[in-house]
Amino acid sequence: MVEFLKNLLSPKIAEVTGIEKGIIYDLLESPKTIEHGHLAFPVFTLAKSLKKAPPLIAQELQKKLENKIQNVTDIKAMGGYLNFTFQDQFLQEILSNKISESPQKLGFQKPNHQKVVIDYSSPNVAKPMSIGHLRATVIGQAVRNLAESQGYEVTGLNYLGDWGVQFGKLAYAYLEWEGGKANQYPFKEKPFEALFQLYVDFHKACEEDPELEKKGSLTFRRLEEGDPEITKLWKIFLEISLNEYNRIYQQLNVKFDLIQGESFYNDKMEQTIELIKKKSLLEESDGAQVVFFKDDEMPPCILKKSDGATLYATRDVTSAIYRHDKMGAQHLIYVVGVDQNLHFRQVFKVLELMGYEWAKNCHHIAFGMYRFKDMGKMSTRRGKVIFMDDVLNKSIELAKSIIEQKNPDLENKEKVAEQVGVGAIIFNDLSQDRIKDVDFDWDRALDFEGDSGPYVQYSIVRCKSILRKFGREIPAKMEVPLTSPQERHLVRLMLNYSEALTISYKNFKPSFLAQYLLDVCRAFSSFYQSQKILDPAIDEKLTLSRLRLVQCVESLLTQGLGILGVQSPEKM
Ligand code: ARG
């Protein structure tokens, strides 16, 4: 990939400039268009020490390097830049070799022996996952895959919301209304729906009988004290919820290495409070234990309420220390909505005040909200919250009807509709800057020709169909150089794949990768439309080289889309 070219140029430029080759490597960049070559070296850093104008420096360097670098066909000084163009066949071979070497790990960096814990999805037990959790899930999975591509050792962690007074309420409601008595909820047939219904009904009933709240709290106390009957119920609720979540995770192609809910930290929080106290950071305020921040830059972080109860923040401070100290992670990443911005700023600041130098490696990967233009009946059916499952099902239905129109004879229509429908939702989410709110538009998400997941899938399917039609083995070597502007552009773009992964991870923005993949699709489409591939009128060697290019596109898009968590069908 492009690193290979940078490695090739940097020592040569180092030789004539005297600058260290590592610095040159970092300065080398990809010019905007292919007309400016494959790599550009900005000479501005030299201007000061040489006391010369950048264009002059570029011209002098050009003369010194001309004809001195193997496989470079052209060196041009342009303003303050020195632009390098490589031989076509040389580049095509690099691309083709890299892809055949490791199609699954294309563009991956070597292991860097650093550990990252990524906390993502993390829904609250007994409730259906909301659209917010959809974002936390798919952005999290993509960031996780990106981290792996950068050589990190990654633990994907699901920090289930599995503790809190709502479990007391649920247990109370279950014992009162369900357990052995009325059996009015379908716990056997549809356990998750039954659980959620119980939750909804309890809250409705509270409006009429405020005493119920108190009873729920008392039942939670019993859970906190380890009462076996309530603990058993709590475990059942947990299992029912996990079964439901796992079904969705499977559909979304999402995996965790560890499920470690909030309850895991119950017996570890006292130690955290002690530590904070020892550092003289803890103060009393209206009976609560809090940490104040300098100059009131933020509201204080409450760690213990006046009744002695711990809070969400107490658990997050505790869990961060655990992830660093016990799990050995140097980097902690949290994929959670932007509405929890203050919470994470407080938690990270408390860690910093506690003297943890690694607090600077804690990152809140925030994302905006979804706004739906048209959810039809959905948005009102179950109150204000939009559930992930409803969105996925609607998307699969729509994909099915599009496929029915476009390709009614397709085999495995159900499976393809699921891949396309789910892929459309994931890609639509990931292709937009995560921090912004998403204006969700069904037509756009499912537009087979627009900037959508189905469009990338369709490009892959198109490649596969060309290769199938040819039906024979294609040599990895490109037989003849490809020289049309479309082909050269495509090759150059694909060589930048590893860089797209790196930039995407550095910014924790899967949208970079998604936009890059769309660029590759567009470049492929213009190549495909302008050049003949399987045409007996063209030379067989040219056909083979072009087919190899198609194979490279197919591999790269499949792998890149996979990093975003989207699968691609064979046909669609
Ligand atoms: N369960 C929380 C929610 O649904 C998200 C948890 C995010 N992770 C964390 N470490 N706080 O809002």
How many strands appear in the DSSP assignment? 13
User: What characteristic shape results from the CA principal axes?
Assistant: flat
Strand content: 5-15%
Strand neighbour order, sheet with most strands: 6-5-4-10-11
Helix/strand/pairing class, anyone?
Answer: alpha/beta
Question: Which cofactors or ions or other ligands sit in this model?
Answer: arginine
Distance between the termini: 30 Å
Unreliable stretches (pLDDT < 50, length at least 5) are: 376-382
Major pleated sheet = 5 strands, parallel
Radius of gyration: 28 Å
Total count of helical runs of at least 4 residues: 22
Arithmetic mean of pLDDT? 91
- Percent of residues in helices: 40-55%
What does this structure look like?
By secondary structure, the chain is of the alpha/beta class. It has a five-stranded parallel beta sheet, with helices on both faces. Strands 1-3-2 form a three-stranded antiparallel beta sheet. A hairpin with a 2-residue loop joins strand 2 (72-78) and strand 3. Helix content is 55%, strand content 10%. The protein has helices at 2-17, 21-27, 44-50, 54-65, 88-101, 131-149, 165-178, 191-208, 211-224, 228-252, 269-278, 312-325, 341-353, 378-381, 388-406, 413-430, 442-445, 453-470, 485-495, 497-506, 510-530, 540-563; strands at residues 39-42, 72-78, 81-86, 115-119, 153-158, 258-259, 282-285, 288-291, 301-304, 331-335, 362-365, 370-372, 438-440. Helix 9 (211-224) crosses helix 10 and helix 19 (485-495) packs antiparallel against helix 21. The longest helix is centred in the middle third of the chain and has 25 residues, at 228-252. The structure holds arginine (ARG). Arginine (ARG) binds next to loops. Arginine binds at residues 119, 122-124, 159, 161, 316, 334, 336.
